Amino acid sequence: MRIDPAIGLSLPRHILKTIILGQMLSLFICGTAVTSQYLAEQYQVNTPMFQSFINYSLLLLVYTTMLAFRTGSDSLWQILKQRWWKYIFLGLADVEANYMIVKAYQYTTLTSVQLLDCFGIPVLMALSWFILRARYRLIHFLAVAVCLLGVGTMVGADILAGRQDSEGSDVVIGDVLVLLGASLYAISNVSEEYIVKNLSRVEFLGMVGLFGTVISGLQLAIVEHREIMRIQWNWKIALLFTVFALCMFGLYSFMPVVIKVTSATSVNLGILTADLYSLFFGLFLFFYKFSGLYILSFVIIMVGFILYCSTPTRTAEPTALPQPGSTGLDNAALKLEENDSETPAITVQFTRGEAVVVSTD
């Protein structure tokens, strides 16, 4: 049997492409993290909702405007008419996920946030199983375990390097906020994967921009109006806000492209390295102490990520459209319905001789 060389090269190229795309997303996340931390430490500016509002406003300005100029079934009016309430929930989940994770830093430690934020990955896999009908193999679960081991190594390096924060004002509240935020991120990512693979990337970004702007704007007016009034604006602060907004806009614009060619779970495993990139910038900006465990954690996470991408997941066949002659479990419900219907069942039995016995129930 001859092996086609093109087939042998397709898998490594696919994995390499997935790695590069995931690390590009990690760099965008790193940009948002570094600018936010610099604003907080150097200028005492803590406005996570205002920063999110700027991002959603950019999405509204670009992608919702694109939808507004469309005609037909995928126009803005038709989308709102058919699915407006779904996008309200999606926008709410996305806005509150961003807010809860950032808010958690005020109550709990950096270590707790890094560890508990990984809770979103098993939630994401469970939602993908039931909603997207993704089916995983043993190697996928092993790969996730390896990635989480890499995160644990990174947290251990943080503790040894002295990056462990104080206990915070209320650790329990902070930990609960992280778990809720991670779960909401999982809901948002699964919804994003479904929309970009079945509808369109522009529809997802346009609707998130529209409802995210409204929801974050209302929440901004309630919880952060005083912090905004206290900002002592100068060109450096304006530049940091601009860089943050561009990185966040790039992350939101580019992530649907990556999810469409991979999956939401794969993307979330790939961006686990974002904290490491933030650390490398922090070595120069915030004078962090370096530890060799950071390199080890990066290698472990990448090994787990490659393991996950090496074997594609499969999608379960829908039960409503069974294939003729199939005997899988997906057709069990259909067979039960057929037995309960009013159509008489016909049984054909072949005896040892030539005679054929036909009976009806």
Automatic annotation (TrEMBL):
Keywords: Membrane, Transmembrane, Transmembrane helix, Transport. The keyword Manganese does not apply. The chain crosses the membrane at residues 20-40, 52-72, 113-132, 139-160, 172-190, 202-223, 235-255, 267-287, 293-311. It is a multi-pass membrane protein. GO terms for cellular component: membrane. It is found in: Membrane. One of its GO terms (molecular function) is transmembrane transporter activity. Its main location: membrane. It comes from the Eukaryota. Belongs to the SLC35F solute transporter family. Putative solute transporter. This is Solute carrier family 35 member F2. It comes from Aquila chrysaetos chrysaetos.
